[in-house]
Amino acid sequence: MLELEHPTPVDLGYRLPAEWTPHAATWTSWPSDDALWEGELEAVRDEFAAMVAVLSRFEPVVVNVTDDEAERDAGARLRDAGVRSGSLRFHRVPLDDAWFRDNGPIFLVSGAGLVALTDWRFNAWGGKYAYERDTAAPESVARELGMRRFAFPHVLEGGAVEVNDAGLLLTTRSCLLAPTRNPHLNEEETEALLRAGLGVRHVEWLERGLEGDHTDGHIDTIVRFCDDHTLVCAVSDDPDDPNFEPTQANLAALRALRDQDGEPFEVVPLPLPQQRRLPDGRVLAASYANFYIANGVVLVPTFGDALDEPALALLRPLFPGREVLGVSAAHLITGGGAWHCVTQQQPEGEPDHG
Predict the structure, then answer these.
(1) Catalytic residue among 175, 226, 233, 341, which?
(2) Domain boundaries of the chain, sorted by first residue
(3) Is 233 a catalytic residue?
(4) What is the pLDDT of residue 34?
């Protein structure tokens, strides 16, 4: 049974805004554990530096660093990449991994223009990896910002939810209803939790995500809003691809979906890059849908794939007023995600000091 302490965010008029609304900053975490990156840490850090260099041209960036070595390394690489110190600051916080979309806070805004954050339990996608330090990260951010923190005893990762700015949330049953998340909650109770904790009005479910996704099917690798009425959906057209059936089912479900006015969404199919595998044969869930929308720019992961440029060309008209730029995530994907997975937006507004 769902039991919540009050007031919840929705009680105080808070909601999760769409990613394209103005940001005060982006938070991200410097990669630090070579074992978690399959021996690719050096190349991953170079890609990270390139991403931060692009992003910092458009908005301030806060880089979490877990120790002295990480801060020295980040400082040197970011300087070499041309990042200006005025657009960058470091936040020291011990972490197990760099996936701040999932282990960091989810920021909310109120009708009065205040910003607060939610702190959900993080259990490394159902106990797949170490997470004891990661799950404490939102509280550290709240202290740094002097910001009201709504703490929940329930498991939720930021990459598991996708919202527009009209109160609609998309997610997958394979993730949020997994027995390793909140086994005591059924679908109806999970919807009630999302409404209370994130201030959304409607929840729509897809069944599952991509093959090889250790998150159990995060929505941010398969379906993304571009605006209140437009969605992109990662799709495979190869009947022999294990992703063919689930992505085609997702596409059909989205085409049947109606918006808050009863109108159909514009649903744009987005191709999947060629399947990538680790040396031991494990499949990686590479997807162009794992882009990050920031102030004036959309950062799209690229993989050295023949479909990189066609995917960028497809996305550019969907984001008028923003540059749509490809940033290599060919090494980053060895950890299982791309640019949306490692970023978290802090919306514009005055911090709610509680």
Answers:
(1) 341
(2) 10-351
(3) no
(4) 84
